[in-house]
## 1
Amino acid sequence: MPTEGGASVRDDLVACPDCGLLHQIRQPRPGHRAECTRCGAVLYRRGRGGVHHALPVALTGAALLAVIVLNPLMGVHVQGNDREGLITSGIEALADQGMWPLALLVGALVLAAPLARVAGVVTVLACLHQGRGPADPRKVARLFAWTEKLRPWAMLDVFLLGVLVGYSRLKGFANAEFLAGGLALGGYVLVRTAMDQTLDRRAVWTSIDHVPPIDAPPPARWVACAVCQRIHGFADAPPAHCTRCASRLHRREPDSLGRTAALVSAGAILYVPANLLPVMTVVNFGQGAPSTIVHGVVELAEVGLWPLALLVFVASIAVPVLKLAGLSWFLVAARRGSGKRLHARTRLYRIIDSIGRWSNIDVFMIAILAALVQFGAVASIRADAGAVAFAGVVILTMLASHVFDPRIMWDRAEPEESPHGR
Ligand SMILES: [Zn+2]
Ligand SMILES: [Zn+2]
């Protein structure tokens, strides 16, 4: 059996991230996926192209990102005054209004994370492009592990929806138009989707470092890397770090239930001011009107934009409640060791974990409106305290669903079957 650093290493096995069941991986056809036989989680999605096909797509994404960062997204005309807004203008406007936490958050999610992720993916794919494997696999693996960890936090796709909602809300009192940066943003989101379709993550990991399959039963005791999925068998103590990507190895997320409970409680407390306090104030001809999250939904519906009103209602009001209620249910069920509705809970967990980031639409809308609508007493928009509380709810619940380990629900429901690993 191949061994690295004292642990036996297997790349022909994959553990379900949601229920922990170990599978022998069979290569699905291009564009298809392998699913967990017990809970239905996606174990492996095979990309449509090889690793080499992903590099041109990633380079196109990088070029579009440069256009987005350097060019204005939208222009606004109010009473003969013009103003254009870049991504950075939204961050600056929030900082100027004293909303530092919000400025830093928006900067991290729509600027730093997407730039770092695209730079990392391009570097990794370029290193693999020669076809002989990278000169220093450990460094490339570490870099790819970072880009994978950044993936949910790079939010230009959510930002695009925030910009569209902002554009619709401007229609009442200003002429707005999309400029080069805004059009590139639309293009980038299409390319990002294409990149997620073509980039075969397992093939990238395999190209960086791979141990060939062996004809032997799975190890009795093992731990899976949460980032690159490598299975590490061990005899006495589990290895501390993954032998491929150097991520820390844990059989289960440490203190998952306690940390999830703390984050859910903090999110639930902030949910109250997030909905009661105004998230922004719109000044129109000297008259200031504070606007809450609910008011924003009503306003979109009043001007007949029902699909957008529904979208914002779901993203900003329904999804945070679903996340807080769902995670609380999982915590109670895991603590009780309940096996009831285990499959339904696991499916709901997957939904909550994947849609949580879309609740940032309103945060991004406020950033873009605060940048664009600065015409003094004629018209101006500023962010208010409710926006900080709302962004806090979104981030705390995202962290809670990341920290919650659904495998614990399966362990506790069937404790007699899981002495180690699984
Ligand atoms: Zn599973
Ligand atoms: Zn790893």
Note: The longest helix spans residues 306-336.
## 2
Amino acid sequence: MLVYVNGQWLNDNEATISILDRGFVFADAVYEVVRIYNGRYFYLDRHLQRLKQSLSALRIDVDVDSLEIVCRELLERNKTDQGSLYLQISRGAAQRVHGLPQGLTPTVVAYVKGLSNLDTSLQESGGKAIFYEDTRWFMCNIKTVGLLINCLAKGEALSQGADDAIFHRGEIVTEATSSNIFIVKNGTLYTHPNGNLILPGITRQVVIELAHELQIPVEEKPFTREELLAADELFLTGTMAEITPYVKVEGRTIGEGKPGCVTRRLQDAFSQLTRSL
Ligand SMILES: Cc1ncc(COP(=O)(O)O)c(C=O)c1O
């Protein structure tokens, strides 16, 4: 696999970064994952805009326009029909000190991965989830590589035979380990509002826009675990998940126990959009 590391194009087994890199030592790094459909990036502009916000929140100074050139060259060199781009920027390498050392050269790593034989069975038949207390920090809108709680939650879900974990702060449902969450009740879509408790998902926004086009009402307002369990439909959205229905949570059946018609309409509209690229 071809990897871009700080201006060099290398094979993945030749690519290295310093053990002092602050991404490695402090999770002092941000990232993006961008989907590739039909050899083209899906909303690269929106991902780069979010990356700009993440970089600015951490006060890492990188010219995002030059990153866009890297992303485009990567896809050019590594022609991929269906796949994803991973792009990570850390503050750079420095002696291990707390505080924010100035004048570092950020570490930029990017690669493209093909997705052949992608398993879409969850999108077709629906997944099972558990609830997991959201003990992450209060800056979940920044897409940092500090994903340990997400990994613990997903690991717990898998160990219980579920597919994912749904985070909640007290009774309020926030999002899932790598996706945003929507419920459908009486024909209206509900999802947690943007802010510091969730990642402002690109797919979440696309789904809201598609819902508007389909005249499906959307309310960006918090809902409880109880409301989730009483929903007619439930689905997760994300770059990799796209729109994935969930039909069981904590062993309780959601709606009719199968992907519902609002979810199906949105899935169809989403796949039309990705096919039209
Ligand atoms: C915690 C979290 N929420 C939501 C999302 C979905 O965001 P997007 O649709 O931009 O992939 C992700 C994606 O990685 C995520 O990690």
Note: The mean pLDDT is 97.
## 3
Amino acid sequence: MISTEKLASIREQFPVTKRQLYLDSGHQTPLSSSVRDALVSFLTEGYEMAGPKPVWVRRVEETRANVARFFNASPSEIAFTKNTSEGLNIAANAVPLEAGDNVVLIEGDHPNNAYAWLNLKSKGVEVRFVPLKDSEIATAETFEPFIDKRTKVITLSHVTFHAGQVHDLASIGKLCKERGIYLVVDAMQSVGVIPLDVKALNISVMAAGTHKGLLVPQGLGVLYVADGLDELRPAYLAMSSMLNPPADYIARPEDMAVRKDALRFEFGNVNLPDLHALDAAIKLIESVGVSEIQKHVNELGDRLLSEMEALDITVVGPRASGQRNHIYVLELPVAEWADFFARNNIRVSPERGGIRVSLAMFNTVEDIERLVEVIRIGLLNKTRRPTAAQMD
Ligand SMILES: Cc1ncc(COP(=O)(O)O)c(C=O)c1O
């Protein structure tokens, strides 16, 4: 558990903690003071100096190196994108796929991943969906019966947004390595809250936005493309993708060689304000440690699970530790409960299976106790007066 003093200083960084019970980091992060300060400094530089662009560009490279270290990658394997969807679409269009090849996904996984691959059906690529219960996680065994010689890609979320499952990337990565299958991971819900070692997990491509566990506003994504996958070709090209960008800015058709590193997938100018914010965010996350954050949210999750059991409220996702992390979906009817939580100044998300509680480094045991107290009141009122309108 993060120490009480450390937790107090983390909460100081997140002023939202003084205003409401924020249990919605799986939706978007509230901003920390250090991230806000980084954005303000960037805006001040742009405002007062119209942008010291070479300085900004140098900082982008420093941030790239920090992001790479964060995932145990090398800077040459990191490209900056707009969001998770862009990264996944880049992957879907870069992997060499022919008519008759197949891609395997999990049924009900995030639509932003599913659509990127379903879009390839017009090229004759088969998309196979593997059924999986919300209470279970995917392992290599889940995928085995669905793959064959024409399987080129397995793709899935590391942590699911709708049930909080933490899929077993280690066994899936091993399977992919043995069978020569690309493993493409949507890490949107796991970055910053679960340590991620792209090499140990044998991930080929990993895409994530940065507005949840990486603590910055929407509009910046991180894309990891393993070195050596030279056959992955960018569907779009800009000068920044080229191996020999022309110094005179005149494109020459006879030299279309693209870069070998992940920068071949980075097109034009990047989200400079967010990149400044990301550097500050990574420093904040590393001052706590991703493993510590993971332990912290898991301990809060343990407490939440036992409280829900006592109240006889089903939690949609898996219960075993290691199979869940910071996302817990409570089987409470959204139509009745979403407004009730809002009226009690608790920020959560409506989800397909109920109400989603998502935990972050700044949440405390007291936060869980407050949530439970409010649920108890809601349940009491509900037994007395059953309609949603009467629940407060
Ligand atoms: C698993 C997962 N993937 C992707 C996204 C979002 O995609 P994007 O970053 O493209 O907006 C979310 C939620 O916002 C998510 O939970």
Note: The two ends are 34 Å apart (CA to CA).
## 4
Amino acid sequence: MSGFFNSSIGRKVAMALSAFFLMFFLLQHFAINILSIFNPDVFNEVSHFMGTNPLVQYALQPVLIFGVVFHFVMGFVLELRNKKANGIKYAKNNGAANSSWMSRNMIYSGIAILAFVVLHFIDFWIPEINTKYIVGDMSGLHNGEFRYFHELVEKFENPLRVVAYVIAFVFLALHLLHGFTSAFQSMGATAGRKKTLQNIGKAYSIIIPLGFIVIALFHHFNH
Ligand code: HEM
């Protein structure tokens, strides 16, 4: 196993696998959060299920946290190794896309996303953990109603938070625009399907962050 992580290709494959996992998480995270625009009651029901289901809480959530930390740590390791290798860049055999501005700056967009994730955990995740596991209130209720929608809307009252989130989502789009195809490439999956994959990658990388921007702005201006 240590041999795997010591090889350049092993590290890239590990990076790609964690990236796929995070992109899948992001898709379901988006699907749930967009419900807050279209149907707050369903958003509340789904949030309560996800927040109290033992399988989600004690199996999926720890795997997710591990995936997030792993991706960041591995990203820094790859960056340092690439720097050391002097010019031998990550996702090397990528033709014209190789020299794109974004491919050289994955570490910077990554750091911006890391800063967002820290802020986002302080905003949402830590209060959740506090209510459920420290206060010990698993009911999901406040004044007899589900609290999730109300708590989410409250967070987007502050224009500074909305601006910080929107900037982070732009960085997320830039990170994904390169990362999506790069991850498939590290798995050797592009040959023959390059154009289709690139198009799916572009659509995903723009629609998901744009959708998150819409959620933040919608709640800021509508409540
Ligand atoms: C407008 C956009 C977003 C909203 C409204 C939102 C909302 C939330 C909420 C309510 C939680 C708490 C869930 C819980 O623990 O019960 C949460 C957790 C989390 N969010 Fe977001 N999120 C947004 C965007 C993002 C983005 C873009 C990312 C990743 C880059 C992200 C990553 C996470 C992670 C890793 C967690 C902790 C895991 C979890 O418990 O689900 N979120 N988010």
Note: The CA atoms of residues 52 and 58 lie 10 Å apart.
